[in-house]
Amino acid sequence: MIRCVTFKLKEMRFLSILLFFLVGFFGYTQVTITGVISDEKGLPIRDAHVHIANKTTSTDNNGSYRLSGIPKGKQKLYISFIGYSAIEETIEISNDLTLNRLLKLDITKLEEVTIKQLSNSKSESSNELILKRTTIEKFSNQTLGDALKEISGVSILKTGSNIVKPVINGLHSNRVPIINNNVRLEDQQWGTEHAPNFDINSAGKITVIKGASALQYGGDAIGGVVIIEPEIIKKDTLVEKTILNLASNGRGGSLSSSIQKGNRYGWSWNALGTFKYLGDRESPDYVLSNSGNREQNFSGGFRFAEEKYNFNAMYSFYNAQIGILRASHIGNVNDLYNSINNQQPSVIEPFTYSIDVPKQEVQHHLAKINYQRWLNDNSSIDLQYAFQFNNRLEFDIRRSSANNDKAALDLQLETHTLLADYKTSIGKWRFKSGANLGYQNNFANPKTGVRPLIPSYEKLDAGFYGIAVHKFDNATSLESGIRYDFSAIEATKYYLKSRWTERGYDAEFSSFIVGEDGNQWLTKPTFDYHNISANIGLKKQFHHEMEWLVNVSLASRNPNPSELFSDGLHHSTGQIELGDLRLQREQSYKFNTTFTKEWQSFQVQINPFVNRISNFMYLQPIGFETTIRGAFPVWEFKQTEALLTGFDVNTTWNISNHFSHELGMAYVNGQNLSTDEYLIDMPPFVMNNKIQYKNESWFNFVSELKSELVLRQNQFPNYNFETNIIVNNELSPVLVDISSPAKGYHLFHFYSEMTFKISQKNSLTTSFSIQNFTNTTYRDYLNRQRFFADETGRNIQIQLKFNY
Amino acid sequence: MKNLKLIALLVIPTLFLTSCNNDDDNTPVNEEEVITTVRVTLIGGGQTIVLEFRDLDGDGPNAPVLTPIEGGILVAGTTYQGSTTFLNELENPAEDITVEVEEEGADHQVFYQLGSSLGTVTYDAADIDANGNPIGIDFSLVAGTAGSTGTLTVTLRHLPNKTATGVASGDITNAVGNTDAAVTFPIVVN
Fold first, then answer.
1. Is B109 part of the contact surface with chain A (CB cutoff 8 Å)?
2. Which of A799, A770, A792 is nearest to A279 (CA)?
3. Mind spelling out the 3-state secondary structure of chain B?
4. Domain count of chain A?
5. In A427-475, where do the E strands start and end?
6. In A, which residues are within 8 Å of B32 by CB distance?
7. Count of A–B CB contacts within 8 Å?
8. How many angstroms separate the CA atoms of A738 and B77, rounded?
9. Do the Cβ atoms of A627 and B55 come within 8 Å?
10. Given an 8 Å threshold on Cβ–Cβ distance, is B179 in contact with A520?
């Protein structure tokens, strides 16, 4: 790989010198080409992409374009616009020319990404990795996290098979904000067992940026950001789609149906409903009891657009019931020890669809209104109000079964956000700036009868940002941005007096105490934060086929409620987790660079990064506390100096007209610099290889074989501890091995599909896939249930997709 | 189309109304599932021995308190009638959880681990659940040989596998389930 980079650098220099001479020498042989691009009705198309020789541009409001400096001779012409068939031709150029072209609407292209964007990119100098609609649809039956795993550098942190969180370059949860439809998802993302509350079927396009460079979405994306955009069709058409999935593992499936009335101007609207119903999953050797899940989701919205403005409103509702592996409920560390050593879940029942305790029931409402106005050809403002309400109910196995239908955790999180954004371009400059105001209220229902780890709180956020992009020429642009965020949080929490003293809060935080109740203090901890985040980056196109991106970003993240206030037993892990009111914000300095090189049929992209994080917050074991249930390990949120380094590699090779190959690799190394240990829960090295066979003349037949190789993570901290268990009626000490990562594994997946065109507008795509077709038994280091059970075994899936 | 707009217009305000919640609800959590106290009473040889573990801050940092501090002093060869009580003393008056354990007997079992030289524990045959399996609240203990010292561990398991090998006779090895209480008392046989 290193050889490859040096080769590229050398070649880059050579090419730029060559280019310089060529331009100078052949300067006089260059011509200018102008023209107008219109649709079938003769209406001009704005923002159409025009590409002649190695020059590119976009059409203006009148559909016209102008490209100068085109060398004479045979040149390639390429014109494209979303939703239309692209024009590709070779032309002989000898003089200045006017080339007018007409683009034809292409119905099948509407299935692809058709998104209205003000600016084409979220970050000029960071690598944007995009999941297209066709890929997203493959995961219709799964989760957002499963789909994101397709991107190298993104791994997943799981709790069982249904709770899946994306991990970007080794970081997750609050370090990876998820932006859904221009709204930052506020769904209690602090918990590792809280998956994004989002229906994958409502995504039209998903973009991953591995860093904090997309400042308009916040300054705390220490890991990266996931941006989800819905499909918006800008053509006057009605598109309906239904996807039916059937899965053998879980013996269920999902049905998702959507209807969308598109329009360039005037009214357009859409609605989508998804139902999911799956029973217990199965590992190769046993049923994973109580691992079924259900979802009932709805979203809908409308949009009114005129030439100068548009208004849109939408509402979505996510409703999920998720079973948690029965065997993962433990009472104390003896139970944990037994589970780790038995290598078999303690409860295995016959397959069932029903979901019993422990389980999660989560609901997420999102409603927003957005108004966008073009002030002139180059500037626009965007105003948005969004409301979110998230309710998380967690049901546990209670000592008294009469209590089992009463939630052990009931958190109600309400978020209001106002956004205002302004965008303009002046000559070679582009500016983006905006402000946000947010109010959040979390209510921890005390009627659960269990002390909540997260208290009730109120939070106020305000921030503003400015981003400037300067385009030196078509090949070089520099981006720089800065953002300021203010945040104030006031929590209301009862602390056990013994805990308050043990934490050493008496002297430092006595001002927070506002009352007392028996053996508890009523406290109102209040904190303010002022954060600066910034970003600078360069994008350079050395040659048509080679691109270099480099970006340095500073991100700041405040401690979340779980890191500040946790104080109790986390039942799913059998550990006492303690927050710390003294925690400071964590700051990351991330250096990120991407080289992309394209040859005739081969493309390679290499993305190394260095992320230096100061005050990195993490959980570390600090000892034991004895309770009536026995001794529990105590984990405390601590701060350290951390260094994450790694690289992601992608290659695409079009072997022939029919065969292609894709490779994805990712490696990350996480160091705890203060303790000279590795960081816990870092994703191991992953390599994915995919061979695809495609034959358009056989009803668009596609067949893929994918190999997923995950090595054992050898870089981990040793957090093992000793406990006493009863052997032959006597207590004897044993080591509880919670640190050793699972073995490496190698899985094979198969996928195939065919598309039948029924009429001009109607088509049916059928797909047949087998995940883990060798039915390999394995456990994953980043699955929080790896102590209790194997991962799921073979899964045969059938998907029918109707477009009409 | 019109309907959809109408729905959206109706839905959004409803959300606001339903979400304006209970800010005044700052009541402390009334912890229902806490066992603060495990008490073992042994009656035999004209003597009543009460062993107790008490942890009034639940999952808090304070360790449980053992009384008497020296644990149980038994007389060799004596048969003691034993019973165990589980209490939540955070409630006033204290809640007797033993009643609940007895009521949901099929879902609970108490286990006693005693070093073999200290004696043997046998479940009371009358203390059984609806399926005829032992619950283990009542038991008898025959003290072993004089001069032995060791421990008695009392474990309350929730949802054990009562039909697994040895479980019915009090062996915890194959019991699985979740531990609701596990305490260890020092024992001396004189």
1. no
2. A792
3. CHHHHHHHHHHHHHHHHHHCCCCCCCCCCCCCCCCCEEEEEEEECCEEEEEEEECCCCCCCCCCEEECCCCEEECCCCEEEEEEEEEECCCCCCEEHHHHHHHCHHHEEEEEEECCCCEEEEECCCCECCCCCECCCEEEEEECCCCCEEEEEEEEEECCCCCCCCHHHCCCCCCCCEEEEEEEEEEEEC
4. 2
5. 429-444, 456-473
6. 400, 403, 449-450
7. 176
8. 43
9. yes
10. no
Whether B28 is covered by a domain: the verdict is: no
The shortest CB-CB distance from A450 to any of B29, B62, B100 is to B29
**Least CB–CB distance from B53: residue in A335, A518, A628:** A628
To the nearest whole angstrom, how far is the Cα of B42 from the nearest Cα of chain A?
19
- Residue pair A81/A47 in contact by the 8 Å Cβ criterion: yes
Residue B10 domain-assigned (yes or no): no
Please check whether residues A98 and A140 belong to one and the same domain. Answer: no
Question: Which candidate in A269, A363, A628 is best for mutational testing of the B interface (most B CBs within 10 A)?
Answer: A628
Q: Which of A271, A331, A502 sits opposite B179 (nearest CB)?
A: A331
**What whole-number distance in Å separates Cα of residue A210 and Cα of residue A223?**
6
Residues A72 and A141 in one domain: no
Q: Residue B151: inside a domain, yes or no?
A: yes
Encode pLDDT of B89-114 as tens digits.
888 888 999 999 999 999 999 999 99
Domain of residue B56, residue span = 35-189
Range of the domain at A81: 28-106
- DSSP label of A716: -
What pLDDT, in 10s, does the model give residues A446-469? 988 888 889 999 999 999 999 999
Burial class (CB in 10 A: 0-12, 13-18, 19+), A798: middle
Residue B28, number of CB atoms within 10 A of its CB: 15
For residue B150, which residues of chain A lie inside 8 Å, CB to CB? 730
* Inter-residue long-range contacts of B125-131, CB under 8 Å, 24+ positions, other chains counted: B129/B105, B129/B162, B130/B105, B130/B106, B131/B106, B131/B162
Mutation for testing the B interface, residue in A629, A730, A788 having most B CBs under 10 Å: A629
B31–A449 C-beta distance less than 8 A: yes
Contacts of A498 in chain B (CB under 8 A): 57, 60-62
Residues with Cβ within 8 Å of A14's Cβ and at least 6 positions away in sequence, in order, are none
Give the pairing of strands B108-114 and B149-158: antiparallel
Domain closes at, from A74, A106, A138 = A106
Q: How far apart are CA A650 and CA A686, in angstroms?
A: 12
ipTM value, please give it. 0.81
Q: Is residue A444 located within the same domain as residue A508?
A: yes
What is the distance in angstroms between the Cα of B173 and the nearest Cα belonging to chain A?
A: 8
Q: Residue A395 CB: number of other CB atoms within 10 A?
A: 24
Please tell me the distance in Å from B11's CA to the nearest CA on chain A: 8
Residues A102, A132, single domain; the answer is no
Within 513-542 of A, beta carbons closer than 8 Å to B belong to 517-520, 522
Tell me how close the Cα of B114 comes to any Cα of chain A, in angstroms. Answer: 6
Q: Which residues of A221-231 are buried (b: 16+ CB within 10 A; e: fewer)?
A: bbbbbbbbbbb
**If chain A, 804 residues long, is cut into consecutive pieces of 10 residues, what is the mean pLDDT of each piece?**
38 46 48 86 83 82 85 82 79 83 66 37 78 92 94 93 94 94 93 92 93 86 93 84 96 96 90 97 96 96 92 96 90 83 90 94 96 91 96 88 86 96 92 95 91 92 94 89 95 93 92 91 95 93 86 94 89 82 95 92 95 95 85 90 96 95 96 95 96 94 97 94 79 88 96 92 94 96 92 97 92
Q: Are residues A784 and A695 in the same domain?
A: yes
Quote the CA–CA distance of A397 and A403 in Å, as a whole number. 8
- Per-window interface: A 467-496 vs B, CB < 8 A: 492, 494, 496
Q: How many domains does chain B have?
A: 1
